[in-house]
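so my prof wants the structure for this chain in the tokens format not the other one, which i didnt know existed until like an hour ago. anyway here's the sequence
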Amino acid sequence: MNNKTKSRRLRFRNILLLWLVGLAGQLCWNLENQWFNTFVYAEVGPFPQIVNAMVAVSAIATTFATFFFGTLSDRAGKRKPFISIGYIIWGIFTIAFGLTGLLTKFTMNIWALATVIVLADTVMSFFGSMGNDAGFNAWTADLISDDNKGAIGTALAVQPVIGTIIGTVLGGILIEAFGYIAFFSMMGGFVSLIGVLSLFLLKDSPKLEPSKRGSFWRQFAEAFNFKYFFSQKELVLVNVVAAIYFIGFNVYFVHIGNLFISNYGFNAGDAGIIQGIGLIIAILFTIPGSRLINRGKSPRVALISILMTIVGLIYLGLIGGYHDPANLFGAKNLPLLLGVIVVGAGYILIMQTLGVWSKVLYPVGSKGQFEGLRIIFFVLIPMVLGSSISQPIIRHFGIETVVEVLEDGTKVMGYIPTEALFYFASIIMVLALIPLIFLRKEYYKRMRNTKISEAVSAAKEELGVDELYYTTPTPVFDKQKRHINFGYATDMSFVFDKKLVKKPLRLKEWDFYQIQHGRYVVQLTLGHIAYAQNIAINLIDLEGEETYSASVVKLFKGAKSMTMPTDPSVDNEIHYTDTKKKVDLHYVTKGRIRHLYGSMVNEKGVTFKVDVKLERLENHDAMVINTPFEDSLYHFYLNYKIGNLRASGTFSMDDLAFTFDPKVDFGLLDWGRGVWPFHEVWYWGQVNDYLADGRMINLNLGYGFGNLEAASENMMIIDGKAYKLGRLYIENDVTLDYMADWIIKSDDGKIDLVMKTIYDRYSDNDFKVIFMKCHQVYGRYYGTITLDDGTVVELTGQQGFFERSHNKW
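here's what i got, hopefully its the right format
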């Protein structure tokens, strides 16, 4: 047998078991959700509190079992024994639950009966969760790939519906004909039989391997590492949307059978037929749903499903009194059927979407455990809260009925549900739209990241390189204004056409210069952040640990009010003047010389004057990078940085004045153009100095924003020649103490640096809704950098800085 034939047979077997084992499980869950509740009303009385207790306690048992057996299955690297044994025992205890109906022959003590019924349901749910949630659902998560997620998603969404259809229609007929005990015995026997068959037919995924991390209980406790869980923003939001939706679902669904039977007057069989026909028609919605999911439109499907459910529930509430239990197929029941179709379609689509959506986000090696987390949000929270919410609604808006009159004349009252449940459920489901807004954003960020990764990986493989490097003129945008050609260069190879910026009102542009002169650092800024201009001259005294500033910030003045050059490497000029603010500043680039001159007066009347020329050495490389963002096809950051610019000229601030010495004083240009996401954090470091052997070094380090798979901005330029460096990170959490040593490492181990801090220049422009907070920490660098050819470059106290900038802008 060749591998292709074997693969086909394996796929057929998996599809068969996916449906067979899945449907058996859903039949049994439907049995619990639909008929256990009517069983209580029929055998004990109309006590919603018993139903609610049964729902809540079984949900807790289900959740614990999923975590417990999920951890066991992850550690064992096996799903099969948990599925098979779980299903066999599940079926046995389903039969046992039905036998509790015999207790009414021995006692009619309501609370004694309630205790036994709740206990029997809890044990059944415990082993059901072992087989279905911890076993079968983890097995399906192991099988999911990009090629089959639509098909598996459809199966997982449709199975509960088919289970509901068969369970309600067939269940109603069998209960009418043979009674509850016989029905539960037949269903339990069927589930146990499927468990036995799975022992011989089911095989675990070949990709599944044992995942042991310490002792069992330590690994079990990892599932409750909520810090890690909540760091997975998209997965958290999927679960939050599901929790809110299913809280609303459990408000009405666990009581819908009793509503149809005890309120509307349908018998169990007819109630099942109405729901069954409606859900059969609703299944058709999975066809377009599957297509949309495979096209990457899961958020749209989720939105449609929630809106359909809300509309359907309100509609059912409005037409609740319009039905005819005496004539099942009469026209008077068509409005009721239509409502079931709309609500059922919404339910099917949300199951189809969120079920697979959550599974594809599970970390490898913990899929069994993460089924437990899914159960918390999809089952435990909704069942506990949904049943708790429905009980007072039924007591307040339900139909009061006398169940029993005690010997002392006390009446034992019961309550029959009404359409009020639909209205309250729809209100709750409206709330699910709020986290869906944020979930949509996270989803498309991941999809965008995936596309970037695929494009970059393909380009790297084709070129045989680790990072994408450009040497010829390369456009930043295509004709549709989408950001393209991610990577780096050592000169301005990227062609920036401002007319192709898709979101010009969000464009940010700046030309930032920094010049070192011993203990002093001079900074000049001309730029805007789309809705505000920023012009500034700063003098930083590292020894005095003080910053002196003259700045102008003009709100609602941005891209259209400033003409910024589109290429920093060619001749250009920027002139900013404002007589009221006493600002006159010039940037003139001609050839290899950048002439910066002008003056500003701050609010204290202090005058800052600068007249400096920065000379770029012949053939000196620059760090140029074109960085994409996962948020949008139209977000980008084009950055040009060049150091070792020999500085000559003068600077003065009132009585303080000095002259730059081109032999020892260096300038740096940071030229940036981009449309950024609203919220970003970045780290950026620079060294612009001489090595101990007299060679010039311009070290650029950075990370934290955008997708850096194409290239990072880490580069060391020695005597004008660029050497690319790998990805780096700050080993210690500098946010705890910015004046502590900054320990700088790289993933490949070639960067091993420490920055001994001198001064933290902190700027805080906080306008509440928007802010720009930056710790620019100056210090001296020590350590080594190993180049690709094995050459080791040692830093022995060269002056530089490293900053952490946190912006909502």
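also thought this was worth mentioning. Confidence is low (pLDDT under 50) at residues 1-10.
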